[in-house]
Amino acid sequence: MPAYAFIGTWVAALLTLFLMSFLYKDNPFFRFAEALFAGVSLGYYIGITLDQTLRPNLLEPLAQNGVTPTNFHLLFAGLLGLNLYTRYIPRIAWLARLSLAVYVGYYVGINMVQKLQGEVLPQSAATMVDLTGGGNGALAAFNAVVVFVGVISVLIYFFFSLPHDGVVGRVSRLGIWFLMLGFGAAFGYTVMGRVSLLIGRFNFLVIDWIGGTMRALGGG
Amino acid sequence: MFLRLRLPLLLTLLAGLVPVVAFFFKDEARAVKAPASWLEQDMIIVAGFALLLGVVNVVQSNMKKIERRDKGWFFAVVLLGGMAVTGLVGALGAFRIGGLPGIGNYPDGRPTPFAWCANYLFTPLQATMFSLLAFYIASAAFRAFRVRNVAATILLVAAVVVMLGRIPVGEGVFGRFTEWLMQIPNGAAQRGIIIGAALGAASLSLRVILGIERSYLGLDKGE
Amino acid sequence: MAKGIAKLQTIDRRWIFLLIALGTLIPIVLPIGFPVTITPPVKSIYDLIETFGPGDVVILSYDYGPTTGAENDPMADAILRHCFSRDVKVVALALYPLGGLTSLSNSLNRVTAEFPELEYGVDYVNLGYKDGGQASMKLLADDFAKAFPGDTNGRPLAEIPLMQQIKGAREAKLAVSIATGIIGEWWANLINAQFGLPVAVGCTAVSAPKYYAYLEAKQMIGLIGGLKGASEYERMVKEGYPATREAYANPLLQTASKGMDAQTIDHLIVIAFIVIGNIAYFASRRGKGQA
Fold first, then answer.
1. pLDDT band at residue C281, thresholds of 50, 70 and 90?
2. C125: which strand partners?
3. C209/chain B closest Cα distance in angstroms
4. Which residues, in sequence order, are bridge partners of residue C203?
5. Which residues of A67-96 are buried (b: 16+ CB within 10 A; e: fewer)?
6. Where are the domains of chain A?
């Protein structure tokens, strides 16, 4: 194992154990690792943003070609981006609103189309199907009815402009039961997800750290 | 008033309308598609700058903590130190200073300083912080899951069935039922949530574009 | 007796932590080897890629970071092994800021080492990471070069042979997003919806329940959910491509299949705690009723 990997594995293992020590109780080792976690994450952002976005998409095109009719908008983008930082200068902090307006405006525009065309329409279409199963048998019909009833009852539950009494109340209750089924399934999957992450860390400690150290010391 | 309020609202309207209008035109409509494409390329760059806004915030708040020697100021030094070292080697790699080939590995497979920080500091810290949740979710399941009423019982039964149906030991008995549960009743519930949330998000987006919703601008009182 | 059982409700949670830790650690040290059953959402992705041949292009988007690497890395690696085993070209990119690039680079390094005959730029390319989220996705769907002027090392796309074969993502046969959060949804509700590109998602178990709604609405062609889904895909790749078994047999490789042993034990521990907690709850209610 090369020296950089051996040292790196030990540093990673110690930081892993420092963070896990919190399970027993809060302590200075955990807080050290926690602070390092926040700092290194921000430093990571700096590195990848400079290398993967700002250099190739902004600086290199302008440096190599100058400002041309086809890339003048990059200068505009760079100025908009830099203008965001005026929010930290109190006298001219309002200037940052101009950049924020363009940034937020664009993304809400994309989002509006995305939500309507990409979620509301296809999800609604998939609900409004042949409730007799389209000739695919009794199970298909049953499933189509369950989905239809489930989606409608959940949407009625979320319609808070109507009081949830009488028929609306009973349908809302059915909606709650569907939601509880969904949340229960989500919880089961969440347990699976979180346990998987722990398996990953223990794999690292056993195979890469302890196993790797033994292999390195044994000449492997 | 125009520069501080009306101009930002006008920019939001224009920037919001560009992708919406472009959506309704084919690729051949260059007059409409070209501005949309420019704006998309620009937003990639602005997003890069925006991602780094948090860095300034964090530096300011932690420097204050260090200057005032508040409780735990040593950890603020650790935070800023970690950020400075990783950010510096990242910046040096990004601009190929000091013979660095970038922020990845050297041609012979050795990691650059940034890649070493990413693999041996960033990755284990990120991974371990989230892996702790496994312990807390087990504890939460023990303390919170109670058969108190019909809704809680449905939630508990669904969770147990899914947990059994997704492991080899329980798949034989619960596997097919779990798959049906995920696709049909869970699918229906999630679909209802998706449709409801999407309608809400779309209407909020329209309110922002039209200037009705202005909280994102951080307006002062009286503006 | 009811009082004693009721006291279980106040057990120190560190005992629970210890049991979970042992339940995870012991199967790693002493593997059991539980069998894995294939489910339809995972099989549909495998079956689709089985119809691809030499020269077809798959987009593989690394939309996750180290926080969920334990779940997502095995999925990404299995998809790569499957594609490379069939001479399917791969355009790999990352859209997740907190570690997408690192996950992408490490995954490609791991798997391409098992296929020494592959040539970078011809059989696969690493476009790296790009900010901008949906803006990047819309641009790369039409023309990769507008979002990614070069690959991760800055080499212009015009100099990369594979990128002469495919101008934009919409020309690919399939986009697979290995995702930890919302970016996988964007591939379905933005790229599939607006450009018609078939999309498959490998997601964390936490996100999987929501993705079933997209799957059922045919906005995705398949779904790999969590470590269980990853283990299913690994099994299909091992059975379909014997050359990959050597890699999966490597004791140093962390695979999803090996992880299912610990997953099984921990699930049973959590279920046991839920049952014990409810027994203690009913015992305390009976105790209060009698008092």
1. confident
2. C91
3. 7
4. C179, C225
5. eeeebebbeebbebbebbebbeeeeeebbb
6. 1-66, 69-128, 131-220
- Interface membership of A44 toward C (CB under 8 Å): yes
User: Given an 8 Å threshold on Cβ–Cβ distance, is C267 in contact with B166?
Assistant: yes
**Which CATH code is given to the segment(s) C40-253?**
3.40.50
A117/C contact by beta carbon, under 8 A: yes
> How confident is the model at residue A112, as a pLDDT?
96
What is the pLDDT at residue A29? Answer: 96
Q: Distance from C154 to chain A by nearest Cα, in Å?
A: 7
For residues A133 and A34, give the distance between their C-alpha atoms in angstroms, rounded to a whole number.
54
Inter-chain residue contact C132 with B194, CB threshold 8 Å? no
Q: Which residue does chain B place closest to C154, by CA atoms?
A: B102
Under an 8 A CB cutoff, do B131 and A58 touch?
no
The whole-number average pLDDT for the span B169-192 is 93
Reported pTM: 0.94
**Is the minimum CB–CB distance between A170 and chain B shorter than 8 Å?**
no
Asked if B24 is an interface residue toward chain C (Cβ–Cβ < 8 A), one would say no
Whether C191 has its CB under 8 Å from any CB of chain B: the answer is no
**Average of per-residue pLDDT values in chain B:** 92
How large is the average pLDDT for residues B33-57? 92
- Residues in Cβ contact with A64 at an 8 Å cutoff, skipping those fewer than 6 apart: none
In this prediction, residue C6 has a pLDDT band, given cuts at 50, 70 and 90, of low
What SS3 string covers chain B?
CHHHHHHHHHHHHHHHHHHHHHHCCCCCCHHHHHHHHHHHHHHHHHHHHHHCHHHHHHHHHHHHHHHCCCCCHHHHHHHHHHHHHHHHHHHHHHCCHHHCCCCCECCCCCECHHHHHHHHHHHHHHHHHHHCHHHHHHHHHHHHCCCCCHHHHHHHHHHHHHHHHCCHHHHHHHHHHHHHHHHCHHHHHHHHHHHHHHHHHHHHHHHHHCCCCCHHHCCCCCC
Q: What's the pLDDT tens digit per position in C67-97?
A: 999 999 999 999 999 999 999 999 999 999 9
Output helix, strand, coil percentages for chain C, rounded to the nearest 5: 60, 15, 30
Cβ-based contacts of C194 with chain A (< 8 Å)? 117-118
pLDDT in tens, C143-186: 999 999 999 999 999 999 999 999 999 999 999 999 998 999 99
Q: Provide the shortest C-alpha distance from residue B73 to chain C (in Å).
A: 26
Tell me if A118 and C190 make a contact (CB, 8 A cut-off).
yes
Closest among B196, B178, B159 to A127, alpha carbons compared: B196
Name every chain B residue with its beta carbon within 8 A of the beta carbon of A155.
192, 195-196
What is chain C's mean pLDDT, rounded?
Answer: 93
Contact B168 C264 (CB under 8 A): yes
Query: How is chain B split into domains, by residue range?
Result: 1-64, 71-135, 145-223
Mutation for testing the B interface, residue in A24, A50, A153, A173 having most B CBs under 10 Å? A50
Distance from the A218 Cα atom to the nearest Cα atom in chain B, whole angstroms:
23
Q: Is the ipTM of this complex over 0.95?
A: no
- pLDDT higher than threshold 80 for residue A208: yes
